[in-house]
Amino acid sequence: MIVRRSAAVLAATVVIGTALAPAAVAESASPSPAPAIPSGLYGTSDPTYDGVWRQSLALLAQHTVGVKPATKAVDWLAGQQCANGAFAAYRADASAKCDAKTMVDTNSTSAAVQALAALGGHDGETGKAVAWLKSAQNKDGGWGYTAGGASDANSTSVVIGALAAVGTKPADVSKDGKSPYDALVKLSIPCGGADGGAFAYQPDKKGKLAANADATAAAVVGALGKGLAGEPLKPVADPLSCKAADSPEQAAQNGAAYLVKALAKDQHLTSVMPGAKNQPDYGNTADAVVALATAGHGDKAADAMRWLETHSAQWAAQAGPAAYAQLVLAADAATFDPRDFGGQDLVKQLNATGPAPASLPAEPKASASASSEEAAKKEDSGVSVWWIIGVGLVGGIGIGFLISARNKKQQP
């Protein structure tokens, strides 16, 4: 059973298809008029719980595929930062000073760091943000969603990605001798049971670890020292199996083995919400693809990518920029074409959810030899057609028509 427990994910799901608010605000939230959408922000839904998160994902995905985001989109994200370096999920009035009531969190802060670091030119902002993240580290080496909150796999992993994005070695960031890798390995379920190798979000009140695919996908990437976009490695030749997690790298491989098993039956992960019908979890499936590719097992994610190609279009259209970004990052990690993804151009669709990009990658130009060959083919084709027509007329059998068909290359 897969239960989403990450506050960051819960915040994002306000936009990407489920009607939940983050745990930190769910009880106190009350109906209120939807805020006006800033012109620099991606998406048109209420950004209260996920504005910075979805903006960061959108900018990171654009950068990954060579799109230069609009200046005002980048400025909006940078402008959400508080003076102490932290980011809240969304600040409607960024000119107002942050105070004790401003709900800053590690997930929004880390996602913003990863996006701004990738785009470059924001060392001041990312430096302050990382300093705040370091100040919020727990004694076990990990991070919770909010400063001082109990460490969880998702938050710890997204912070690792932020540290790596600015060139800081996560292993060197420690509290009481514990690094974030120590915190993640502690949340890895030992081999031997049905869920061996998976990561838990957090221990329960009795200290027991329960497998969570969302947390596992995040932790595989985090344990390998990578960020939200992952980083495809050379294929790992060794067969996946669960072994004693004596290092973060082995814990990551164990997590990858668990994800392969979780995807095997239906080629997707399943979302299980209290009181709701089980349904495919498109976002976490995309994250699992990024995790497997980052662990060197992208080939084992191919079926999941084909499933997403066939089934994710409606979900993404309803969900908006965060969903498109997740699919773009998954496609890129798994070497699928995000511009021809089940007949959809994910990059174009993502771009359309916000301000027009500053620039797009140049279209590849055909080489001189290729152009000559194409011209020769056209010339030969023309001669053949007229020759056939001539023969037909002379023989009194009418005009023959030459029809050619070109099969579209299919994604393996």
Structural class by sheet pairing and helices: mainly alpha
Helix content: 40-55%
Cα-atom Rg, whole angstroms?
24 Å
Percent strand equals under 5%
Number of strands: 4
Write structural notes for this entry.
Helices cover 44% and strands 2% of the residues. With 412 residues, it is mainly alpha-helical. The longest helix is centred in the C-terminal third of the chain and has 28 residues, at 368-395.
Which SSEs are present, and which pair or pack?
Elements: H1 7-12, H2 51-64, H3 71-79, E1 87-88, E2 104-105, H4 106-119, H5 123-135, H6 153-165, H7 180-186, H8 213-223, H9 248-264, E3 269-271, E4 279-281, H10 282-294, H11 302-311, H12 313-319, H13 321-333, H14 346-351, H15 368-395
Antiparallel strand pairs: 1-2, 3-4
Helix pairs in contact: 2-4, 2-13, 4-5, 4-6, 6-8, 8-9, 8-10, 9-10, 10-11, 10-13, 12-13
Characteristic key phrases:
single chain; 412 residues; mainly alpha; two-stranded antiparallel sheet; 15 helices; 4 strands; 44% helix
